[in-house]
């Protein structure tokens, strides 16, 4: 590696007796500084994850070809099966032709009407009545995460779960400790106690990279002696080898890893050589490494932003884009241009965020054929609730460690997606029954609004997870009033789940009335609900109707600039099954897009961030993305499609609170009506005016609120 002759002759050679790194930069490692050039990050990604889960679960020989099937498609293919040319675009029938010995294991499913998922041998025939469960893979994912953590000293476990089968590790502090252990000259103090002094030179010219795939740095760069950044990466790589060894030994899984100075490079590195390999990208090799990539493979650049750049500069290659001066890139906007400029040069100062708490959970099903009756919907709700509740239990709801604040139902009919949201009462233990009643109530609201059938997709999510809530005042108390509030509370206390929807218990309500003429039923709703109802219409979300979803969305850290520029998840990070027959599954990973570049609203995590690069090659696949927005009041991310509705939710809640206060103060309705419009309703810029108002835009806000109230009380 080193060459004294070259060192003597090259004008580029740093032939000082010192390193090019300072004592300060070394010290910064200890505190996980995101800017020290000595930083060391690893990304670990399981090989053919679901396929390995099945191999391990069934105790099969990992050398035998195996694929995980979902309906007629394949969603995971192990490496022995890939040798037969199998990939996710191949159907199960085609797969068997290509590889007659292929073991195909269908994913576990929830069967309509049952309250537990199971492995059903004939599940592939029953797409209409079964729903995919990813529980087995989530369970394995958790075990692997904890094994990875345990493989690291407790004080150095800075691990971010990035998806169901990947994690980032910030190994900086651990490497710092190892450096000091192995190179006593680094223990200091620095000469003259001056941290801006350069470190001594690395005492060796050869580093042990073991079996690592070492990305070449190009002839010239390879001539230079190793410096401390190389040493740091070699130590990190040693740690990662140990971690991977533990995962294999204890749980039987192989994984691949990337080791580099930041998340972006580490992530690209883990996919560079697979399976069961680890790739190191030394700082000196970054330019060489990135040049060969399409920039659309880089995190954040796989989606619309990437397309925009391709269109603007007529290329998708990093090499070509690197020729563009900063001013040219700034055509994309100052911030985006600068970010892009440094990103394609391998800069990324985002943190490894060890928070792995789930912040929302979603369970969904696409119906083919569509469903046509309330009772049918309710049967699916029972499954969604069982699914979501079991995941809540894993999150510690029974011990009141964490619990969700809101429940959402999304309903799709034709091109229209509608959502209903309700607070989850906080003052008593969360139960499956409570969630079920709330869910049923939400579905009943959709139904009473009309045009509910045929329904092609239903999804249920709970969100706003909070740590052990102690206040016994349910947020629900603020949202609804009068009969509606009583009806809701009653519904939460109901007995058998097969009972009628809560609406039945409303005044005058029997089930026939409930599903009767729309206008008449509107009277059943009180003022705040009317505001919600009126505004909840006509969502034109382009959410994919074919999703059979089962996903958790992990807490993100808004301070993480990396995430700011991107994601969710999640995740919201999610991805689809690119089967030609269906896209039936998606999962989430990591954090959602919490902010946008230049205030753009269309930036969301590219699928490849989820380890779904292959999807980009497949033209007919509609990419599912879940754009989210951050609600500062709930401190949570929610699907962007729900933004307007969610704002309405707060608006109605505030309004209702005002009214309660005024009621308490003995104020009249007249005053309430004077006051209510003063609250600015968030502008939504889409959909029809609330309450069916034909009034104009902008200035109509106040009138709309009044109208909604009027209508609710007619
Ligand atoms: P990936 O990490 O993208 O792929 P993989 O683990 O199967 O294979 P690799 O060795 O290349 O990393 O996805 C992780 C799991 O997510 C995968 O095993 C199955 C699931 N998945 C889907 O269900 N649908 C998809 O479209 C993709 C890409 C993955
Ligand atoms: Ca993987
Ligand atoms: Ca992955």
From TrEMBL:
Record field: compositional bias (Acidic residues): 545-560
Disordered, as annotated region: 491-520, 533-618, 657-714
GO cellular component terms given for this protein: nucleus; replication fork; site of double-strand break
Segments of skewed composition (Basic and acidic residues): 561-575, 599-618
Keyword Flavoprotein: no
Coiled-coil regions listed in the entry: none
Example GO BP: error-prone translesion synthesis
Domain spans labelled UmuC: 41-302
GO MF term set: damaged DNA binding; DNA-directed DNA polymerase activity; zinc ion binding
Source taxonomy: Eukaryota, Fungi, Dikarya, Ascomycota, Pezizomycotina
Protein name listed in UniProt: DNA polymerase eta
InterPro entries, A to Z: DNA/RNA_pol_sf (IPR043502), DNA_pol_Y-fam_lit_finger_sf (IPR036775), DNA_pol_Y-fam_little_finger (IPR017961), DNA_polymerase_eta (IPR052230), Rev_trsase/Diguanyl_cyclase (IPR043128), UBZ3 (IPR041298), UmuC (IPR001126)
Keywords, sorted A to Z: DNA damage, DNA repair, Metal-binding, Nucleus, Transferase, Zinc, Zinc-finger
């Amino acid at each position: 590696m080193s060459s004294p002759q070259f060192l003597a002759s090259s004008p580029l050679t740093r032939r000082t007796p010192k390193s090019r790194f300072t004592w300060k930069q070394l010290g910064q490692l200890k505190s996980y500084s995101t800017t020290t050039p000595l930083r060391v990050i690893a990304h670990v990604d399981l090989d053919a994850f679901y396929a390995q889960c099945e191999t391990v679960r069934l105790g099969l020989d990992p050398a035998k070809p195996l694929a995980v099937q979902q309906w007629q498609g394949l969603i995971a293919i192990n490496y022995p099966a890939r040798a037969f040319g199998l990939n996710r675009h191949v159907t199960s029938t085609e797969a068997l032709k290509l590889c007659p010995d292929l073991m195909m294991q269908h994913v576990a499913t929830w069967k309509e009407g049952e309250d537990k998922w199971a492995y059903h041998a004939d599940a592939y025939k029953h797409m209409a009545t079964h729903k995919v469960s990813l529980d087995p893979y989530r369970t394995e994912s958790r075990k692997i995460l904890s094994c990875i953590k345990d493989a690291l000293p407790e004080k150095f476990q800075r691990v971010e779960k990035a998806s169901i089968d990947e994690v980032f590790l910030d190994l900086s502090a651990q490497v710092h400790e190892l450096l000091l252990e192995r190179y006593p000259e680094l223990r200091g103090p620095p000469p003259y106690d001056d941290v801006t002094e350069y470190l001594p030179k690395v005492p060796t010219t050869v580093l042990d990279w073991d079996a690592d795939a070492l990305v070449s740095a190009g002839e010239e760069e390879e001539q230079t002696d190793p410096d401390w950044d190389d040493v740091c990466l070699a130590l990190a790589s040693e740690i990662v080898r140990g971690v991977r060894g533990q995962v294999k030994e204890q749980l039987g899984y192989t994984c691949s890893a990337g080791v580099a100075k930041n998340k972006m490079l580490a992530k690209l590195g883990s996919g560079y050589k697979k399976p069961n390999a680890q790739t190191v990208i030394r700082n000196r090799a970054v330019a060489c490494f990135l040049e060969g990539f399409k920039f659309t493979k880089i995190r954040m650049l796989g989606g619309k932003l990437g397309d925009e750049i391709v269109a603007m500069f007529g290329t998708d290659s990093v090499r070509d884009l690197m020729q563009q001066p900063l001013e040219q890139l700034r055509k994309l906007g100052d911030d985006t241009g600068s970010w892009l400029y440094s990103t394609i040069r391998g800069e990324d100062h985002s943190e490894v965020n060890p928070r792995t708490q789930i912040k929302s959970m979603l369970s969904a099903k696409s119906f083919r054929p569509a469903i046509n009756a309330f009772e049918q919907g309710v049967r699916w709700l029972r499954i969604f609730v069982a699914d979501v509740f079991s995941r809540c239990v894993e999150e510690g709801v029974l011990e009141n460690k964490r619990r969700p604040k809101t429940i959402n139902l999304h309903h799709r009919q034709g091109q229209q997606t509608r959502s209903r949201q309700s607070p989850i009462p906080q003052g008593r233990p969360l139960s499956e029954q409570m969630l079920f009643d709330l869910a049923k109530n939400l579905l009943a609201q959709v139904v009473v609004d009309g045009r509910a059938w045929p329904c092609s997709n239903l999804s249920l999510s709970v969100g706003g997870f909070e740590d052990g809530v102690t206040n016994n005042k349910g947020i629900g108390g603020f949202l609804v009033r009068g009969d509606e509030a009583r009806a809701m509370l009653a519904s939460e206390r109901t007995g058998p789940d097969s009972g009628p929807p809560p609406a039945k218990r409303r005044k005058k309500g029997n089930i026939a009335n409930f599903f009767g003429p729309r206008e008449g039923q509107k009277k059943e709703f009180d003022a705040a609900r009317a505001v919600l109802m009126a505004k909840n219409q006509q969502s034109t979300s382009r959410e994919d109707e074919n999703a059979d979803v089962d996903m958790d969305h992990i807490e993100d850290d808004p301070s993480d600039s990396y995430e700011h520029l991107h994601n969710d998840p999640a995740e919201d990070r999610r991805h689809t099954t690119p089967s030609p027959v269906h896209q039936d599954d998606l999962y989430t990973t990591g954090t959602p897009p919490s902010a946008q570049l230049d205030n753009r609203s269309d930036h969301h995590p590219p699928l490849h961030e989820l380890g779904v690069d292959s999807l980009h090659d497949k033209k007919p696949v509609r990419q599912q993305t879940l754009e989210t927005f951050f609600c500062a009041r709930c401190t949570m991310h929610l699907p962007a499609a729900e933004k307007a509705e969610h704002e309405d939710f707060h608006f109605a809640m505030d309004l209702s609170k005002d009214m309660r206060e005024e009621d308490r103060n003995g104020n009249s309705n007249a005053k309430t009506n004077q006051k209510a419009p003063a609250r600015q309703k968030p502008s939504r810029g889409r959909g029809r005016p609330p309450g069916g108002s034909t009034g104009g835009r902008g200035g109509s806000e106040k009138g709309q609120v009044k109208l909604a109230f009027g209508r609710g009380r007619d």
